[in-house]
Specification:
This protein has about 250 residues and is an alpha/beta fold. The chain has one domain: NAD(P)-binding Rossmann-like Domain (Rossmann fold), CATH 3.40.50. Helix content is about 45%, strand content about 15%. The chain contains eight helices and seven strands, in the order E-H-E-H-E-H-E-H-E-H-H-E-H-H-E. It is globular and about 55 Å long. The structure holds NADPH dihydro-nicotinamide-adenine-dinucleotide phosphate.
Amino acid sequence: MGSDTEEIVQEVALVTGAGRGIGRAIAVDLAKSGRFVYINFRSNSEEAEKTLQLVKEAGGDGALLPFDVTDEKAAHASLDTIYDQKGGIDILVNNAGIRDDMLMVWMKADNWQRVLDTNLTGFYNVTKPVVKKMLSKRKGRIINITSTSGQVGQPGQVNYSASKAGLIGATKALAKEIAKRKITVNAVAPGFIETEMVEGLPLDQITQAIPMGRLGTAGEVAAVVTFLCSPQAGYITGQVIGINGGIC
Ligand code: NDP
């Protein structure tokens, strides 16, 4: 029970790529306990507006924060907006990601670079300035959305697998760098999750290869992310948590 004078501090979260799919589910789940959630996306503002509506319906509040995570200057300017409005970020979820699948022999430098720029350099562009502020506050949670592909390698996804494996390395290294300041850094590695990203894949064939015989849902990923943001998860850092129906 809090006293009348006790201030209730609303936590502030930033979820990149929260306009649709897994990012939307994470934004909504984090909002359930009254958090303020910044919803980042690249260009689809109609879908991002829907996410904001769902965040409010879930009991939280939020704001849209469009920027391209590959653009370092744009990312920094948007983060400054958050610091001006809210003074800090308690939770950062690096979720924005793309795939551009093809066999390595057909892969052009651009197919490689675009995926690495979004999935890995995007993490750097957003996380570095956030970490600097978290260090001085001695508080923070960072969750990176990687993939089964980054854990085991997926044919046709050399670029995507490399970017997601890189994210796992970055998670483990950063966790060790900042653990003493009570900031945790973890990765969540979904398998095949029902979102627009898996459209066009041979889903019947894929489902047969998943021990649980079904794709996962964005809500199942979001629940783990929210747990990693809870006080109960304060001693978990540098870990990669698979959500994949037993595929690896
Ligand atoms: P979706 O394609 O459904 O959504 C992607 C989101 O990321 C959109 O909101 C999109 O914005 C945003 N985005 C893409 N590029 C950028 C960028 N450069 N800057 C800012 N935002 C960007 O993807 P999922 O929800 O399926 O995937 C989310 C994350 O989960 C990704 O990192 C993905 O790699 C990972 N993942 C997904 C799996 C799956 O099976 N779905 C499995 C394993 C990992 P906009 O709407 O404006 O285009």
